[in-house]
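dude i think i finally got it to work??
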Amino acid sequence: MTPTFGKLPRTLRLDPSDTFVFARAAEPGEWAVTGSFLFFDADLSALAGKDRAAFRSGFVGVDSLGFSTLVVVSEASEEEHAAAVEALARHIHERFGAPDREAARAAAREEIEVAASLCNLPVGSVVAMHRSERDGAIAEEFRTLHQRPPGADPLHGRAFQFVETDEDEVEEQADLVGLLRDAPAGAGRA
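look at this
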């Protein structure tokens, strides 16, 4: 077993929603950073649709540069930490024009350190982010999602709740197959 070096966030996909919400979804289990650097030169007021969703709530996978709504605090070995820095440095150098590999590596180390600072939580903690623009700067807020103890809230502990209704009410129906058929190509794949 590889010794633990520290903790880093990993992308977490509980359902396929990230593949619909973001133009490019991160692969489950990638090491992640907040990714705010991707929006430094963007006109934030002009962001719309999937780009706006990525800005507002997307962590970034260091391998794919895809987005993930959630991350999970995970143990990382020294080798995994170094590999995450190198993967992000490669993108910063090749895709974002860092002057050289060492400058890209320094920027990647800084991003990874920020991500590691979010992991002052127990391993397995799930973290969500809300990013916004305030006074011309990007602001990030984080929240930890906790599992409710069994029986703590019987109404919210289930995915579905059956409620007795009057027969006069209009029945709502959703055509999930039709929604998937009309989705853009590739959107239904996880």
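The helical segments are 17-21, 49-57, 78-94, 101-117, 176-182.
im so relieved honestly
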